[in-house]
Design brief:
single chain; globular; SspB-like_sf; SspB
Length: 167
């Protein structure tokens, strides 16, 4: 009977998805420090994804969300996170399994992780590292230098991450 090889590739992917979970957990507990903001790209058809049908229709393969100024009710769990974002002035609750994430980026510090899409059977590996569930309401605290009213931030914008990838 042949011995199975150690799957270091899966171990690394699981550990790096844990980095995403830890970053989101810190943000859920304390908010985004400084200029940090996150771009998260995920597979919209992945099992466990819960997003409005019109977003799935508009983005049948992948979608990128931005966590910066206007996000609400960020909850981080062992195998997924939940967040409320505004799309065309309508608040929508998104449920995203960590295994569905294909890219995580924090452009403020030039940091990005790109993942091989996990198969649904591998998602149990992603949940192997426990997280601390937290819920925090986060409000827009952006102000200009002279305390003039800040411009209304864009809502529900989906962006391409090609600008952040090394060529």
């Amino acid at each position: 009977m042949p011995k199975e090889q150690l799957r270091y590739d899966r171990m690394v992917e699981t550990a790096l998805r844990g980095v995403v979970r830890d970053a989101l957990t810190d943000v859920a507990e304390r908010g985004l420090p400084g200029n940090h903001h996150f771009y998260l790209t995920f597979r919209t058809g992945y099992p466990g994804i819960d997003i409005p049908e019109y977003l799935t229709s508009q983005y049948p393969n992948e979608m990128t969300i931005v966590l910066q100024f206007q996000y609400y009710g960020l909850e981080v769990h062992d195998d997924h996170f939940e967040v409320t974002l505004s799309f065309n002035n309508v608040h929508e609750r998104l449920v995203i399994p960590f295994a569905a994430i294909t890219t995580f980026a924090d452009p403020s510090v030039n940091f990005a992780l790109q993942f091989q899409p996990a198969t649904p059977g591998e998602s149990a590996d992603v949940a192997a590292i426990p997280a601390r569930p937290v819920t925090v309401e986060r409000k827009d605290e952006s102000k200009t230098a002279d305390d003039a009213p800040a411009e209304e931030p864009k809502r529900g914008e989906v962006v391409a991450l090609d600008a952040f990838r090394k060529k």
